[in-house]
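Session log. Operator J.P. requested a structure for one protein chain; no other inputs attached. Running the standard single-chain path with token output.
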Amino acid sequence: MNEHLHTALSLTADALPVLPLRKGKVPFGNCLACTMNACGGRPNMKNPGPCTCPHPCHGWAAATTNPRTINSPTWTRAWREAAAVAYHPGGAGLTVVDLDNAEAITWACEALPATRVVRTTRGEHWLYQGAMQSANAVRPGVDIKSTMAYARWLGPGTGTTTELPDAVRALIVRERAPARLVVIAVPAPAGGGQCPHRTPTYLDRGIAMAEQQIAEAREAVHATVYRTFLAVLSTHGRCGCLTETHTARLFTAAQAKGESPRHCTDAWTNALTTLGLSHV
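Structure written below.
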């Protein structure tokens, strides 16, 4: 039996989802059936779900613990060409702290709790029990490999796998840029700039509801932000009661969900244009 195939099958006993890697530690490229996302675009951030393609051509999303899949003819051909075995840490409930040099290892020894360690060609993999969002370059020489990522199998390592600490989770938390304020210029009503049909309390409640709607978005965040901006502007965009403070609250809520200041500005501008207010 092929050495890499044998290793892959043995890892499934430990519930590690595996996949073959080509030379250069990269996954197999899309087969013809999956070229240009013809299969539905399985391995990406927006649509990471399964596809019916039997080939191991979807990067981390192809990782499996199913021996029948691993032993299938299409996968067997891939194992013959494989240069290494990889696994999906997040799929096994694990997080790998990839330390790429001696300086990174020194930092980890001082900042992180001891856990299982696997030596790599240039550094070490520190394995923790618990999954989290993956991220590259969280600090010099340090990557996080967990969900939607793969790590090369280099052996079981030494030590005991310990619980994922908050210190590792905190590595992907970055301070967000301050909300980018936009001066809203809208036509004032004839009544001296006072809103003739809404009270300040009503406006404040509406902004709070908009913040909540953005905060509760679980998917399609950008679309949710745009729809929320559109709803606020359709109600108050023509009466002159919106201020920069209100806009800042909306932008801050959007950025807390991962939207950049530029995306916020674009969504706001598009909403103004849709309502015919962009000329002001």
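Operator note: The beta strands are 18-22, 26-27, 84-87, 94-99, 116-119, 124-129, 135-139, 142-145, 151-152, 162-163.
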